[in-house]
Amino acid sequence: MKGKSRGRFRLALTLLAALFLGALPAGLASPAVAAATGSISGTVTVPVGTDVTKIMVATLAGPTQKNVWADAEGKFLLPALEAGQYNLQFVDTANPMQLLPTFYGNRDRDQSTVVTVTAGSAVTGISQAMSIGGTIAGKVSVPAGVNPAGVTVVAGGPSGTNSSAVNNDGTYVVRGLGAGGHKVYFVHYGQPSPVLSTYYPGASLDGATLVPVTEGAGVTGINQVMQPAAMISGQVSVPVGSSYDGQVTVEAGPDFTKNNFVSTAFIGADGRFTVGGLPAGKYKLHFRTNNQKWANMWHGAVAVADKSPWVSVAAGEQLTGVTDSAVAAASVSGSVSGQPAPGPTMSGPGMSITAIMQDGTVAASTVMETSQTTYAIRNLLPGSYRIQFNRDPDFVSSYEAQSYKDLPESSGTAGATLVTAQAGQAVSNINATVRTGGTFTGKVLDSKGRPLANARINVYTKDGSLITRFDYSMADGTFKVTGLTTGLYFVSAEEGAESGPIFSGNVLNEANARSISAAVGQNTDIGTLSYATATAGKQGFDDVPLGAQFQDEIQWLADKGISTGWEANGSRTYQPLSPVNRDAMAAFMYRLAGKPAFTAPVVTPFKDLPVGTQFYKEITWLADKGISTGWEEADKSKTYRPLQPVNRDAMAAFMYRLAGEPAFTAPKVSPFVDVPVGAQFYKEITWLAAQGISTGWAEAGNTKSFRPLQPVNRDAMAAFMFRYNTKFGSI
Question: Is residue 459 domain-shared with residue 422, that is, in the same domain?
């Protein structure tokens, strides 16, 4: 249940098929007609004093995977090989290993000689000489009472890694090392480890000293003094008659979601544990069980590390008395049904299911394979959880992400229905009905215009509100990312062989990337991302996707500085479907007019517009030019109503006045079914239509409507101003 894809299921089927065919009696043909096979044979030569029968010869690459051992004369035979090209590897399997592993013809696989086998052929004369590697030797010193034989020495260098156990007297020899610098690691694998693991000469991995090795030669004197480790002991208490089965990990953070533990130990049936191998510092303890009886938890019986108390130890300290009480586990289970995913599937949909705490922390998760239609999340602490389906970014699925009660990801997760489980309670029937999400398809090209293969394509949101989906480009540069909810996404192709990522809109600067609209069950072709033609781009608005209505007019508005939109957390938005308020309309018109010189009055002309209010200068300029007269109230005062949306009829009046109230004779027959002759602003509306600034809506019977009392949305506002500027320019 912890797999991340359906590949394991297909692998299991492959293995079962192999076992079945391998079990056929001799002489009985498999269901398919077997093709003629070939063989490879030869001789291995080893230095005097080494055992040639310990040399394994393997087809590391090729149609048939097989390995054999050389005989006492060094001869080997790899039989029953399918036709194809093979890389042969020769490895010393003796303990300790003394000879250096090699490929046929060269130590480096990329430079090795390929052996070609044809159907029915016997390739002979494949001879390979093996050489003795270098050695690193020294002595390990441990604190009193510690057996040095519990320590293992590991040497890693350019040609790989070898290890050696330490003798009872503290001496060791690591053999079979290739030429070059090696980092030497001293580790006590037993638990509780009484000593600290370290790199020679008592350093971290980054600070380790490279020990130079020559093939066939020995380096001595690589000695190491092992320092005493701190230990933490305690007990997870269980009721009388019960037992515990699990392990404890000691983690240092700061990110406790990555399972990067410092040390670990098994917990006894009585709940007692001791963890060693710890440097001085502060830690958090994580208890995980191996059965369904007890909840997984952090020290303090909490579900997340942030709420768990720190446990501090000094150098070499043996801290005791850390106690917790086991909590009876809760579980959540259910079934998943719905649309089958595109392409071949097994009987179930296959997806990730996650239990999220109310603060947004992941408490537990599981993966439902394609062969399943039910799931269970076990070992939960009692509490309330949001159960999410297909919101694990590492699990590739065609299904739209959602929360319990079929709440799609596009609706947000904060309003998801909580599932409450008591200690020991099994909550069932937390079911989901899934549906196939949207897809993005496209192509990515390199800096020479060629298809770019194996580039990771990410489909994401800047604020992380929607789960990032990904795919890798094919050999022809094409890609398909699935499982998208309805909403706006950005697309990036990660670096690969190029100098940096490329983003939707075919730009190299993420701030200038263009969003793309996805819809459940629909495919969107985002076009080509090409390093050959990409530019830095220019910043638009993140909520105005490519292909959106009035996208060019909105971009023009931004380029001219008429609308700056809103900026927060690295995102710039325009809110195209929001109504335009009267104060913002004044600002738009002032900027459209070229920001003419104007000194705002020291006394406001509108009682609902205090001096210094946002857009005070722009609103008073509008009034000064007679573009807006406001309203006369019962007390003879005037108001502007700055936060009231602008209706389309008033918008026509504003623009007519902004143009200088040009001579115009209104038509005797209205062009709009919902604007009768003589209606308020009839002249202004028909003037707007005559200039092509507003086209209205096509209605039944070849008629048109203007919808005069409908508020003007910000996207339509951009269109009006773009057309006005095209016709009249700024004043």
Answer: no
